[in-house]
Amino acid sequence: MTRAEEFEELRPLLFSIAYRILGSVSEAEDAVQETWLRYAATPTSPVSVKAYLSAVVTRISIDVLRSARVRREQYAGEWFPEPLLTDPYQDPERSAELADSVSTAALLLLERLSPLERAVFVLREVFGFGFPEVASAVGRSEAACRQLAVRARRHMDAGRPRFEADRREREELAARFFDAFRGGDVDGLRELLAADVSMVSDGGGTSPQWGTGVSGAGNVARLLAALAPPFARIGGVVESCELNGQPGAIFRDRDGRVVNTWTLDILGGRIQAIRTVLNPDKLGHLGPVADAWTVVGETIRARRRS
């Protein structure tokens, strides 16, 4: 097997590691490409290609994250990870850990960790690497990595909801929600929303804050019911799909361009939060991006005419 073939075989794993450390599709792809360049330039062949490439992509991702954290601290408004349609790496033995770790809620919890804690947690808890491999990847002793893992696990466990909906329950509730949303059914929406549900959006300071800051089941239900019909009248489409392993949707304009995404946080049989990504810089990997200002303006005018 050639080096290029070995690398392509491991690319899904490398991307999945980088995405969980960085929370960014574009940055993860760049980290994987840089890993390939370094591997191609290495004069000797490593004993374990998987261990070597995983270590390289981890170190690159840590460096990128350190600089990215400064930008995120200065970010306008809420920062959410870039929406991920599908996780390319599949491992039946770790499917639960993989699915949980890519959710928007989990990625936001990972933001609380230091870059080293985050990398150790991802390698150890998500992908099941042994501590010798983790230590080699992050350049710390095994004892230090064990301490980092304990601290990271403590932070993650403290932030997790106590009871999570199972996958089938989430999917059924989401299907009912989107049916009610498309139909503008206020009562149908209200009964699916938690009393303190909130709508939060990531526009990066460059996009309209479409519904952000609205909270409470009644307020959110009325807003959603008023939004869907005029959006449909201007040719908008709400494409239900799974994003970051959670029920969600991609909103498209009449030409199929991406306007924004939604992910639904579901707990206790109710939708707790609706997270919207409107920042066009975070949507390009999903397809051509629409001008959200134009779409929102057209939707508002269509609503006034009704």
TrEMBL record:
Keywords: Sigma factor, Transcription, Transcription regulation. One of its GO terms (molecular function) is DNA binding. Residues 7-69 form the RNA polymerase sigma-70 region domain. Pfam families: Sigma70_r2, Sigma70_r4_2. InterPro entries: ECF_Sigma-70_Domain, NTF2-like_dom_sf, RNA_pol_sigma-70_dom, RNA_pol_sigma-70_ECF, RNA_pol_sigma70_r2, RNA_pol_sigma70_r4_t2, RNA_pol_sigma_r2, RNA_pol_sigma_r3/r4-like. Residues 107-156 form the RNA polymerase sigma factor 70 region 4 type domain. GO terms for biological process: DNA-templated transcription initiation. Belongs to the sigma-70 factor family. ECF subfamily. PANTHER family: ECF RNA POLYMERASE SIGMA FACTOR SIGJ, SIGMA 19 FACTOR. Interacts transiently with the RNA polymerase catalytic core formed by RpoA, RpoB, RpoC and RpoZ (2 alpha, 1 beta, 1 beta' and 1 omega subunit) to form the RNA polymerase holoenzyme that can initiate transcription. This is RNA polymerase sigma-70 factor.
